[in-house]
Amino acid sequence: MPYKLSGRNVLITGASRGLGALLAEKFAKEGCNVAINFNTSEQRAQQVAEKIRSTYNCQAIIIKGVLAPSASASGLQLTRPLQDQGVLAECEDTVQKTIDGLGGLDILVSNAVRLRSQARPTLAERSQYLGLDQNVHIRQPGCLVRGRLGQGSFKGNLHLFRKALPTFNANPEGGVFLLTSSIAGLGPQGSAMAYSVSKAAGLQLMKCLAATQGPKVRINAICPGLLLTDWASAREPTIHTEQNKN
Fold first, then answer.
1. Which of 169, 195, 167 is nearest to 182 (CA)?
2. Which DSSP state fits 119?
3. What DSSP assignment string belongs to 70-98?
4. Contacts of 13 (CB under 8 A, 6+ apart)
5. Which backbone phi and psi does 177 adopt, to 5 degrees?
6. CA distance 234 to 35
7. Residues pairing with 34 in the sheet
8. Mean pLDDT (10-residue bins), the chain, 246 residues
9. φ and ψ at 222, to 5 degrees?
């Protein structure tokens, strides 16, 4: 049976701009109510919500939440237990506020990511970005997750999904969990080693969840190539120029 979108309640993380904002509008166009998660861009999140309400006559709420740790130069604070607990709490809070604000949750799109741009990073710098040079680790039942690799594409997604799962299972037609991934997770991507490895981890998590958490939850990932969002456009001026020419 087709899964109709009209009337569904959707949470999109990282939805104040770029791909997340576009997804919010696309879901609203199909008749969905939308929760827009943001980190720092509250004004832009409000603008997205107001556009959805006025244009598509759907509910739209905004929810502040830091669902992935920042990518600092040293990376030391990212592996502290308190930082990990902060991400867990914000993920759970964001899902609960969506359920309370929209009256339920049918679709969760995990789109938020925190990136740091480096020019020709060394292997040591790439390893540090992944947290592989840190001794601090966090244990969960059945697994050991280290450093900011686990904090980002792995742990944030897992926290969100775990909080949403009881609601998905209680829904008559279940729920949908979608990850925004990248072709970088499907093959080597030059200087973006940390990004590629973290995306590959997220894709493997998606496959494992899909194999074990059915039958009422649809779990999948979207793997686009380069998207000229605000962040990418600022760092890829040559590609942006060629795109405009074409």
1. 195
2. S
3. ---SS-GGGGSHHHHHHHHHHHHHHHHHH
4. 20, 37, 65, 67, 94, 109, 110, 111, 112, 160
5. -125, 115
6. 27
7. 10, 60
8. 90 92 97 95 96 97 79 40 68 97 97 58 55 43 42 77 97 95 76 75 91 93 73 52 47
9. -110, 130
Q: For strand 33-38 and strand 60-64, is the pairing parallel, antiparallel, or unpaired?
A: parallel
> Dihedral of CA 70/221/139/131: which sign?
negative
CB half-sphere exposure, 46, CA atoms < 13 A: 4
Cβ neighbours around 174 below 10 Å, total: 16
Tokens 């556009």 identify what position? 51
Backbone angles phi, psi at 70, to 5 degrees: -70, 155
User: Do 112 and 14 touch, CB atoms closer than 8 A?
Assistant: yes
**CA–CA gap between residue 69 and residue 72 (Å, rounded):** 9
Q: Which two tokens stand for residue 192?
A: 């973006």
- As a whole number of angstroms, the distance between CA 237 and CA 214 comes to 43
Under a CB-based contact definition with an 8 Å cutoff, are residues 104 and 172 in contact?
no
